[in-house]
Amino acid sequence: MEALQEVFNNREIALGCWIIISIIFGLFTKAGREFFKSVVIIVFSRKMIFLYTIYLSFFSLTVFYLYHAGFWDWLLLKDTVFWGMFVFIPLFSKTIMQAKDARYFIKLIKDNFRLIVVIEFILNFWTFNLAIEILIVPIAFLLGGVYAVASRDERTAVVNKLTQLSQLENLC
Question: Among 61, 62, 76, 91, which has the minimal tally of Cβ within 10 Å of its Cβ?
């Protein structure tokens, strides 16, 4: 366990535990197995593999350039992988789906920069012991899910208002 904590912090370990538990639980239910089958078909489709190739090429070239410029080294590999998976892939997907004009990119950068600065500050500087992190991860996941669902429908405006992070965005 100590070797694992040398590489990963408690939040990352807790997140990994919940992901493993979710996958195991999903494999033992019929709905979970059907979901995994449909996801595998989508993830490995020809169009998605083409997008992965573009994404990984751009991401690899960026890291390679930063390495040779002296701004990146191997100690940043874990953070780079996490950033690529949880920030860059969703941002890449969102951009492909919604980019219609040049103003979209300026708005996207502003919106993400404000929120990312606050989230990165909290996540990188405050971690708790493993037991607390194991409790925080599903609560944060649940709140994120409630926010995502509530922001889609006008009937849930009260819930949406409660879960909005606009107060945090105004601080940035």
Answer: 61
The whole-angstrom separation of Cα 89 and Cα 168 is: 23
Biggest CA–CA distance in the chain, Å, is 52
Q: From the CA atom positions of the chain, what is the Rg in Å?
A: 19
Compute how many other C-beta atoms are within 10 angstroms of the C-beta atom of residue 133: 19
Distance CA 117, CA 24 (A): 34
Which residue shows structure tokens 């103003």? 103
pLDDT digits (tens, 9 = 90+) for 93-120: 666 666 666 676 677 666 666 655 666 6
Write the pLDDT tens digit of every residue in 28-66.
999 989 988 988 898 888 888 888 888 889 889 999 999
* Token pair belonging to 60: 């690899």
